[in-house]
Amino acid sequence: MYRVFRSEWYEKKLKKLDKSEQNRVLKFEKALKGDPQSSKPLGYPFLREKKFHEKRIIFLVYEKYKCVFLITVTDKKAQ
């Protein structure tokens, strides 16, 4: 079981999403606790993304500490 942490920037971006997108992100956060490797790696094994609609959630996975650090929610153009 992994612990999930949010950055301040992630919190700000999350508040800007509409309710349905926020609910989807919250479900994804819960799923991350069980298996953070179920998402796409971004060049490094610890840097990952999860896609939904036109947006991406970018996060880091720390295997050694069994935790996930959510960095930001962005659209594809900003990636």
Structure description:
This protein is an alpha+beta fold and 79 residues long. The protein is built from 2 helices and 5 strands; from the N terminus they run βααββββ. Strands 1-5-4-3-2 form a 5-stranded mixed sheet. β3 and β4 form a beta hairpin. It starts with a strand and ends with a strand.
Which structural traits does this protein have?
79 residues, alpha+beta, 5 strands, 32% helix
Secondary structure elements and pairings:
Blueprint: E1 3-6, H1 8-16, H2 19-34, E2 40-41, E3 47-52, E4 55-62, E5 67-75
Low-confidence stretches: none
Helix content: 25-40%
The fraction of residues assigned to DSSP E strands is 35-45%
Class from secondary-structure proportions: alpha+beta
Write down the overall geometry.
globular
Largest sheet: spatial strand order: 1-5-4-3-2
Compressed to H and E, one letter per element, the order equals EHHEEEE
Q: Got a strand count?
A: 5
Describe the sheet with the most strands.
5 strands, mixed
Roughly what is the average pLDDT, rounded to an integer? 92
Instruction: Please give the count of helices.
Output: 2
